[in-house]
Amino acid sequence: MTPWPGSPHHARWLRLHGQHLLHFGRRSADTGTEGGAAWLDERGEPDRTQRIHTYITGRTVHVYALGALLGVPGCAPIAEAALRGLTGRLRDTIHGGWFSSIGDDGPEPGKSCYAHSFVVLAGASGAQAGLPGAEALLDDALAVFLERFWDDAAGMCVDTWDTGFRRLDPYRGINANMHAVEAMLSVASLRGEEAWLRRAESVSRFVVRAAAGNQWRIPEHYTSDWRADLAYNRDEPAHQFKPYGSTVGHSLEWSRLLLHLAAALGDDGGRAELVDGAIHLFDQAVADGWAPDGEPGFVYTVDWDARPVVADRLHWVLAEGINAAACLYRQTGEERYATAYRQWWDHAATFHLDHVHGSWIHQLDAHNRPAASVWAGKPDLYHAFQTTLVPLLPLYPMMAAALADGP
Protein backbone atom coordinates (compact mmCIF):
# COMPACT_ATOMS: atom_id res chain seq x y z
CA MET A 1 0.00 0.00 0.00
CA THR A 2 1.27 3.47 -0.90
CA PRO A 3 2.13 5.50 2.22
CA TRP A 4 -0.40 8.28 2.74
CA PRO A 5 2.08 11.15 2.22
CA GLY A 6 2.65 9.88 -1.32
CA SER A 7 -0.83 8.55 -2.11
CA PRO A 8 -2.84 10.27 -4.86
CA HIS A 9 -6.04 9.08 -3.17
CA HIS A 10 -5.04 10.75 0.10
CA ALA A 11 -3.98 13.84 -1.82
CA ARG A 12 -7.51 14.12 -3.22
CA TRP A 13 -8.92 13.86 0.30
CA LEU A 14 -6.56 16.62 1.51
CA ARG A 15 -7.73 18.92 -1.28
CA LEU A 16 -11.37 18.22 -0.45
CA HIS A 17 -10.78 18.80 3.25
CA GLY A 18 -9.05 22.07 2.43
CA GLN A 19 -12.10 23.20 0.45
CA HIS A 20 -14.36 22.30 3.37
CA LEU A 21 -12.21 24.38 5.70
CA LEU A 22 -12.27 27.37 3.35
CA HIS A 23 -16.06 27.07 3.21
CA PHE A 24 -16.29 26.97 7.02
CA GLY A 25 -14.23 30.15 7.39
CA ARG A 26 -15.95 32.15 4.67
CA ARG A 27 -17.54 34.54 7.20
CA SER A 28 -14.23 35.32 8.91
CA ALA A 29 -13.85 38.61 7.01
CA ASP A 30 -17.45 39.67 7.67
CA THR A 31 -16.41 42.69 9.73
CA GLY A 32 -17.86 45.58 7.75
CA THR A 33 -16.14 48.14 5.59
CA GLU A 34 -13.24 48.53 8.04
CA GLY A 35 -11.89 45.10 7.19
CA GLY A 36 -10.02 42.63 9.33
CA ALA A 37 -10.95 39.08 10.31
CA ALA A 38 -13.36 38.01 13.01
CA TRP A 39 -12.85 35.34 15.65
CA LEU A 40 -15.12 32.44 14.65
CA ASP A 41 -17.32 30.42 16.98
CA GLU A 42 -18.03 26.68 16.86
CA ARG A 43 -20.36 27.09 13.86
CA GLY A 44 -18.13 29.42 11.87
CA GLU A 45 -20.06 32.57 12.79
CA PRO A 46 -18.19 35.74 13.79
CA ASP A 47 -18.01 36.03 17.59
CA ARG A 48 -18.78 39.70 18.18
CA THR A 49 -17.69 39.45 21.82
CA GLN A 50 -14.09 38.99 20.66
CA ARG A 51 -11.77 41.73 19.52
CA ILE A 52 -10.39 41.96 16.00
CA HIS A 53 -6.89 40.49 16.34
CA THR A 54 -3.99 41.31 14.06
CA TYR A 55 -2.59 37.78 14.16
CA ILE A 56 -5.94 36.23 13.19
CA THR A 57 -6.39 38.85 10.47
CA GLY A 58 -2.89 38.12 9.11
CA ARG A 59 -3.53 34.38 9.21
CA THR A 60 -6.83 34.86 7.36
CA VAL A 61 -5.13 36.84 4.60
CA HIS A 62 -2.52 34.08 4.36
CA VAL A 63 -5.03 31.20 4.23
CA TYR A 64 -7.37 32.79 1.72
CA ALA A 65 -4.47 34.00 -0.42
CA LEU A 66 -3.43 30.34 -0.58
CA GLY A 67 -7.01 29.49 -1.49
CA ALA A 68 -6.88 32.04 -4.29
CA LEU A 69 -3.62 30.55 -5.55
CA LEU A 70 -5.35 27.15 -5.55
CA GLY A 71 -8.03 28.59 -7.81
CA VAL A 72 -10.86 28.29 -5.26
CA PRO A 73 -13.60 30.82 -6.14
CA GLY A 74 -14.47 33.35 -3.46
CA CYS A 75 -11.14 33.21 -1.62
CA ALA A 76 -9.58 36.40 -3.04
CA PRO A 77 -12.43 38.68 -1.83
CA ILE A 78 -12.14 37.26 1.70
CA ALA A 79 -8.37 37.76 1.70
CA GLU A 80 -8.80 41.32 0.40
CA ALA A 81 -11.38 42.16 3.07
CA ALA A 82 -9.08 40.87 5.81
CA LEU A 83 -6.14 42.75 4.30
CA ARG A 84 -8.11 46.02 4.52
CA GLY A 85 -7.98 45.62 8.28
CA LEU A 86 -4.18 45.53 8.17
CA THR A 87 -3.98 48.62 5.98
CA GLY A 88 -6.75 50.30 7.99
CA ARG A 89 -7.94 50.16 11.58
CA LEU A 90 -5.33 47.72 12.91
CA ARG A 91 -2.51 49.98 11.77
CA ASP A 92 -1.13 52.66 14.09
CA THR A 93 -0.88 55.77 11.94
CA ILE A 94 0.65 57.81 14.78
CA HIS A 95 3.48 55.66 16.14
CA GLY A 96 3.82 53.14 13.31
CA GLY A 97 3.41 49.41 13.27
CA TRP A 98 0.27 47.45 14.08
CA PHE A 99 -1.87 47.14 17.18
CA SER A 100 -2.22 43.59 18.47
CA SER A 101 -6.01 43.94 18.47
CA ILE A 102 -8.80 46.46 18.41
CA GLY A 103 -12.24 46.48 20.03
CA ASP A 104 -15.04 48.80 21.06
CA ASP A 105 -12.72 50.26 23.70
CA GLY A 106 -10.01 51.02 21.14
CA PRO A 107 -6.65 49.39 20.41
CA GLU A 108 -4.88 46.99 22.73
CA PRO A 109 -1.82 48.62 24.33
CA GLY A 110 1.60 47.51 23.13
CA LYS A 111 3.18 46.19 19.95
CA SER A 112 4.22 42.56 19.62
CA CYS A 113 6.63 40.71 17.36
CA TYR A 114 4.12 37.85 17.24
CA ALA A 115 1.44 40.04 15.63
CA HIS A 116 3.91 41.77 13.31
CA SER A 117 5.21 38.41 12.06
CA PHE A 118 1.72 37.59 10.81
CA VAL A 119 1.48 40.97 9.10
CA VAL A 120 4.68 40.08 7.23
CA LEU A 121 3.30 36.63 6.38
CA ALA A 122 0.05 38.18 5.16
CA GLY A 123 1.94 40.62 2.98
CA ALA A 124 4.12 37.91 1.47
CA SER A 125 1.27 35.49 0.74
CA GLY A 126 -1.00 38.29 -0.40
CA ALA A 127 1.65 39.65 -2.76
CA GLN A 128 2.22 36.16 -4.14
CA ALA A 129 -1.52 35.92 -4.84
CA GLY A 130 -1.62 39.39 -6.42
CA LEU A 131 -3.91 40.96 -3.82
CA PRO A 132 -4.23 44.75 -4.27
CA GLY A 133 -2.12 46.58 -1.69
CA ALA A 134 -0.32 43.47 -0.45
CA GLU A 135 3.07 44.38 -1.90
CA ALA A 136 2.98 47.83 -0.29
CA LEU A 137 1.82 46.30 2.99
CA LEU A 138 4.76 43.91 2.89
CA ASP A 139 7.25 46.71 2.24
CA ASP A 140 5.91 48.66 5.22
CA ALA A 141 5.78 45.61 7.49
CA LEU A 142 9.36 44.64 6.68
CA ALA A 143 10.57 48.16 7.43
CA VAL A 144 8.87 48.12 10.84
CA PHE A 145 10.08 44.60 11.53
CA LEU A 146 13.70 45.47 10.83
CA GLU A 147 13.61 48.73 12.76
CA ARG A 148 11.69 47.56 15.82
CA PHE A 149 11.87 43.81 16.21
CA TRP A 150 15.07 42.51 14.62
CA ASP A 151 18.08 42.68 16.96
CA ASP A 152 20.99 42.30 14.58
CA ALA A 153 23.56 42.02 17.37
CA ALA A 154 21.74 39.08 18.94
CA GLY A 155 20.61 37.63 15.62
CA MET A 156 17.17 37.24 17.19
CA CYS A 157 13.86 39.06 17.47
CA VAL A 158 12.82 41.09 20.50
CA ASP A 159 9.29 40.50 21.74
CA THR A 160 7.18 43.44 22.91
CA TRP A 161 7.22 47.24 22.86
CA ASP A 162 4.86 49.75 24.38
CA THR A 163 2.44 51.37 21.96
CA GLY A 164 4.71 54.30 21.13
CA PHE A 165 7.84 52.16 20.59
CA ARG A 166 9.58 53.93 23.48
CA ARG A 167 9.98 51.10 26.00
CA LEU A 168 11.12 47.60 25.09
CA ASP A 169 9.99 44.83 27.42
CA PRO A 170 12.94 42.78 28.76
CA TYR A 171 11.17 39.51 27.97
CA ARG A 172 12.45 37.53 24.99
CA GLY A 173 10.53 34.58 23.61
CA ILE A 174 10.82 31.73 21.14
CA ASN A 175 7.18 31.70 20.03
CA ALA A 176 7.41 35.09 18.31
CA ASN A 177 10.78 34.13 16.83
CA MET A 178 9.29 30.92 15.47
CA HIS A 179 6.57 32.72 13.54
CA ALA A 180 9.10 35.33 12.47
CA VAL A 181 11.15 32.51 10.89
CA GLU A 182 8.08 31.31 9.00
CA ALA A 183 7.48 34.85 7.77
CA MET A 184 11.12 35.39 6.83
CA LEU A 185 11.24 32.16 4.84
CA SER A 186 8.07 33.24 3.05
CA VAL A 187 9.63 36.61 2.17
CA ALA A 188 12.77 34.86 0.91
CA SER A 189 10.59 32.57 -1.21
CA LEU A 190 8.82 35.57 -2.73
CA ARG A 191 11.73 37.93 -3.27
CA GLY A 192 14.78 35.71 -3.32
CA GLU A 193 16.65 37.94 -0.87
CA GLU A 194 19.46 36.05 0.86
CA ALA A 195 19.39 38.31 3.94
CA TRP A 196 16.01 36.92 5.04
CA LEU A 197 17.31 33.37 4.84
CA ARG A 198 20.32 34.33 6.96
CA ARG A 199 18.10 35.93 9.60
CA ALA A 200 15.93 32.83 9.69
CA GLU A 201 19.06 30.69 9.94
CA SER A 202 20.40 32.73 12.87
CA VAL A 203 17.22 32.24 14.90
CA SER A 204 16.90 28.58 13.95
CA ARG A 205 20.46 27.67 14.93
CA PHE A 206 19.97 29.38 18.31
CA VAL A 207 16.91 27.20 18.90
CA VAL A 208 18.77 24.02 17.91
CA ARG A 209 21.61 24.85 20.30
CA ALA A 210 19.24 25.72 23.14
CA ALA A 211 17.22 22.54 22.68
CA ALA A 212 20.29 20.33 22.34
CA GLY A 213 21.53 21.66 25.67
CA ASN A 214 18.17 20.93 27.34
CA GLN A 215 17.50 17.28 26.37
CA TRP A 216 15.85 18.46 23.14
CA ARG A 217 13.12 20.35 24.97
CA ILE A 218 13.10 23.96 23.78
CA PRO A 219 13.45 26.61 26.49
CA GLU A 220 10.73 29.05 25.41
CA HIS A 221 11.30 32.08 27.66
CA TYR A 222 14.36 34.29 28.13
CA THR A 223 15.69 37.43 29.79
CA SER A 224 16.85 40.44 27.79
CA ASP A 225 20.36 38.97 27.44
CA TRP A 226 18.98 35.63 26.24
CA ARG A 227 19.35 33.62 29.43
CA ALA A 228 16.68 30.92 29.68
CA ASP A 229 13.99 31.36 32.36
CA LEU A 230 12.73 27.81 32.86
CA ALA A 231 10.26 28.86 35.60
CA TYR A 232 8.49 31.50 33.52
CA ASN A 233 4.68 31.43 33.86
CA ARG A 234 4.75 28.51 36.28
CA ASP A 235 1.71 30.20 37.87
CA GLU A 236 -0.06 30.51 34.49
CA PRO A 237 0.71 27.18 32.84
CA ALA A 238 -2.16 27.28 30.31
CA HIS A 239 -1.21 30.62 28.75
CA GLN A 240 -2.27 30.78 25.08
CA PHE A 241 1.09 32.00 23.81
CA LYS A 242 3.63 31.75 26.64
CA PRO A 243 2.88 28.63 28.71
CA TYR A 244 5.20 27.24 31.37
CA GLY A 245 7.46 24.32 30.51
CA SER A 246 8.09 22.56 27.22
CA THR A 247 5.45 23.28 24.56
CA VAL A 248 5.13 20.03 22.63
CA GLY A 249 3.56 21.64 19.57
CA HIS A 250 6.38 24.15 19.21
CA SER A 251 8.95 21.37 19.03
CA LEU A 252 6.92 19.78 16.24
CA GLU A 253 6.50 23.11 14.46
CA TRP A 254 10.21 23.88 14.75
CA SER A 255 10.99 20.42 13.36
CA ARG A 256 9.09 21.37 10.21
CA LEU A 257 10.61 24.85 9.97
CA LEU A 258 14.14 23.49 10.27
CA LEU A 259 13.46 21.24 7.29
CA HIS A 260 12.10 24.16 5.27
CA LEU A 261 15.26 26.11 6.09
CA ALA A 262 17.56 23.19 5.30
CA ALA A 263 15.90 22.83 1.90
CA ALA A 264 16.27 26.57 1.28
CA LEU A 265 19.98 26.51 2.13
CA GLY A 266 20.64 23.42 0.05
CA ASP A 267 24.21 22.24 0.40
CA ASP A 268 25.29 25.58 1.84
CA GLY A 269 27.04 24.42 5.02
CA GLY A 270 25.33 23.14 8.13
CA ARG A 271 22.29 21.59 6.48
CA ALA A 272 22.90 18.28 8.24
CA GLU A 273 22.77 19.98 11.65
CA LEU A 274 19.33 21.39 10.86
CA VAL A 275 17.96 18.04 9.68
CA ASP A 276 19.45 16.31 12.72
CA GLY A 277 17.85 18.95 14.96
CA ALA A 278 14.48 18.43 13.28
CA ILE A 279 14.65 14.69 13.94
CA HIS A 280 15.66 15.13 17.58
CA LEU A 281 12.96 17.71 18.27
CA PHE A 282 10.32 15.51 16.67
CA ASP A 283 11.39 12.38 18.55
CA GLN A 284 11.50 14.11 21.93
CA ALA A 285 8.15 15.83 21.38
CA VAL A 286 6.51 12.53 20.50
CA ALA A 287 8.14 10.73 23.44
CA ASP A 288 7.04 13.47 25.85
CA GLY A 289 3.74 14.50 24.39
CA TRP A 290 1.89 11.65 22.72
CA ALA A 291 -0.44 9.86 25.15
CA PRO A 292 1.77 10.19 28.25
CA ASP A 293 -1.35 9.76 30.43
CA GLY A 294 -2.64 6.73 28.58
CA GLU A 295 -5.16 8.63 26.46
CA PRO A 296 -4.46 9.17 22.75
CA GLY A 297 -3.48 12.65 21.63
CA PHE A 298 -0.74 15.22 22.23
CA VAL A 299 -0.74 17.07 25.56
CA TYR A 300 -0.22 20.84 25.42
CA THR A 301 2.80 21.11 27.74
CA VAL A 302 5.12 19.04 29.92
CA ASP A 303 7.54 20.11 32.65
CA TRP A 304 11.29 19.71 32.37
CA ASP A 305 11.04 16.12 33.62
CA ALA A 306 8.46 15.29 30.91
CA ARG A 307 5.49 15.20 33.28
CA PRO A 308 2.30 16.62 31.72
CA VAL A 309 1.46 20.11 32.96
CA VAL A 310 -1.54 20.94 30.75
CA ALA A 311 -2.92 17.64 29.52
CA ASP A 312 -5.61 19.13 27.28
CA ARG A 313 -5.27 18.36 23.59
CA LEU A 314 -5.05 21.44 21.34
CA HIS A 315 -5.79 21.05 17.65
CA TRP A 316 -2.77 23.04 16.49
CA VAL A 317 -0.36 20.67 18.27
CA LEU A 318 -1.77 17.69 16.37
CA ALA A 319 -1.77 19.68 13.12
CA GLU A 320 1.91 20.51 13.54
CA GLY A 321 2.65 16.88 14.34
CA ILE A 322 0.98 15.84 11.08
CA ASN A 323 2.95 18.46 9.15
CA ALA A 324 6.26 17.55 10.77
CA ALA A 325 5.74 13.86 10.07
CA ALA A 326 4.97 14.62 6.42
CA CYS A 327 8.09 16.76 6.06
CA LEU A 328 10.34 14.24 7.78
CA TYR A 329 9.00 11.50 5.52
CA ARG A 330 9.72 13.67 2.50
CA GLN A 331 13.23 14.40 3.83
CA THR A 332 14.22 10.88 4.92
CA GLY A 333 11.82 8.40 3.32
CA GLU A 334 11.66 6.56 6.65
CA GLU A 335 8.46 4.56 7.08
CA ARG A 336 8.03 5.49 10.74
CA TYR A 337 7.11 9.04 9.77
CA ALA A 338 4.47 7.86 7.30
CA THR A 339 3.08 5.59 10.01
CA ALA A 340 2.85 8.46 12.49
CA TYR A 341 1.31 10.68 9.82
CA ARG A 342 -1.47 8.18 9.16
CA GLN A 343 -2.04 7.49 12.86
CA TRP A 344 -2.41 11.18 13.64
CA TRP A 345 -4.79 11.87 10.77
CA ASP A 346 -6.93 8.98 12.03
CA HIS A 347 -6.85 10.56 15.49
CA ALA A 348 -7.79 13.96 14.05
CA ALA A 349 -10.73 12.48 12.16
CA THR A 350 -11.92 10.61 15.26
CA PHE A 351 -11.66 13.40 17.82
CA HIS A 352 -10.79 16.84 16.38
CA LEU A 353 -12.66 17.10 13.09
CA ASP A 354 -16.16 18.45 13.65
CA HIS A 355 -18.23 16.40 11.24
CA VAL A 356 -21.39 18.36 12.09
CA HIS A 357 -20.41 22.03 12.01
CA GLY A 358 -17.07 21.88 10.19
CA SER A 359 -13.42 22.72 10.85
CA TRP A 360 -11.47 21.31 13.80
CA ILE A 361 -12.47 21.40 17.46
CA HIS A 362 -9.70 23.58 18.82
CA GLN A 363 -9.42 22.09 22.31
CA LEU A 364 -10.17 18.73 23.90
CA ASP A 365 -9.68 17.79 27.54
CA ALA A 366 -7.45 14.95 28.73
CA HIS A 367 -10.18 12.47 27.80
CA ASN A 368 -10.66 13.91 24.30
CA ARG A 369 -13.90 15.70 25.10
CA PRO A 370 -14.52 19.27 23.84
CA ALA A 371 -13.16 21.93 26.19
CA ALA A 372 -12.52 25.68 26.12
CA SER A 373 -10.18 26.62 28.96
CA VAL A 374 -7.42 27.76 26.56
CA TRP A 375 -9.27 28.34 23.25
CA ALA A 376 -12.95 29.20 22.84
CA GLY A 377 -14.62 28.53 19.51
CA LYS A 378 -12.72 27.92 16.27
CA PRO A 379 -10.93 31.27 15.84
CA ASP A 380 -9.21 30.70 12.49
CA LEU A 381 -8.09 28.12 9.93
CA TYR A 382 -4.33 28.66 9.90
CA HIS A 383 -3.02 25.44 11.45
CA ALA A 384 -5.76 23.16 10.13
CA PHE A 385 -5.62 24.46 6.56
CA GLN A 386 -1.84 24.12 6.35
CA THR A 387 -2.16 20.39 7.07
CA THR A 388 -3.95 20.11 3.71
CA LEU A 389 -1.01 21.66 1.84
CA VAL A 390 2.26 20.82 3.60
CA PRO A 391 2.06 17.09 2.68
CA LEU A 392 1.54 17.99 -0.99
CA LEU A 393 4.19 20.66 -1.50
CA PRO A 394 8.01 20.70 -1.61
CA LEU A 395 9.91 21.65 1.52
CA TYR A 396 10.95 24.88 -0.19
CA PRO A 397 9.85 27.36 -1.44
CA MET A 398 7.19 28.09 1.16
CA MET A 399 3.51 27.43 0.45
CA ALA A 400 2.40 30.56 -1.41
CA ALA A 401 5.48 30.59 -3.64
CA ALA A 402 5.20 26.85 -4.29
CA LEU A 403 1.56 27.22 -5.36
CA ALA A 404 2.39 30.22 -7.53
CA ASP A 405 5.09 28.18 -9.27
CA GLY A 406 2.47 25.72 -10.49
CA PRO A 407 1.47 22.09 -9.79
CATH fold-level name: Glycosyltransferase
Distance between the termini: 24 Å
Query: Quick one: how many beta strands?
Result: 14
The succession of helices and strands, N to C, reads: HEHHEEEHHEEEEHHEEHHEEEHHEHH
List the quaternary state of the chains: single chain
Strand residue content = 5-15%
Fraction of helical residues: 40-55%
Integer tally of domains: 1
Reading side by side through the largest sheet, how are the strands ordered? 1-2-3
Mean pLDDT: 96
Assign the CATH architecture.
Alpha/alpha barrel
Main sheet characteristics: 3 strands, antiparallel
User: Mind telling me the C-alpha Rg?
Assistant: 19 Å
**What is the CATH level 1 assignment?**
Mainly Alpha
Task: Outline the structure in words.
This protein has 407 residues and is mainly α. It has a single domain (4-404), classed as Glycosyltransferase (Alpha/alpha barrel), CATH 1.50.10. The chain is 49% helix and 7% strand. The chain has helices at 8-24, 54-69, 75-87, 113-128, 134-149, 174-191, 194-212, 248-265, 271-289, 315-332, 335-352, 382-386, 399-404; strands spanning 52-53, 101-103, 106-107, 111-112, 150-151, 156-157, 160-161, 172-173, 221-222, 246-247, 301-302, 308-310, 313-314, 363-364. The strands form six sheets. A three-stranded antiparallel sheet has the order 1-2-3. Strands 10-11-12 form a three-stranded antiparallel sheet. It has a two-stranded antiparallel ribbon with strand order 4-7. A hairpin with a 4-residue loop joins strand 5 and strand 6. Helix 6 (174-191) packs antiparallel against helix 7, helix 6 (174-191) runs parallel beside helix 8 (248-265) and helix 8 runs antiparallel to helix 9. The chain starts with 7 loop residues before the first helix and ends with a helix.
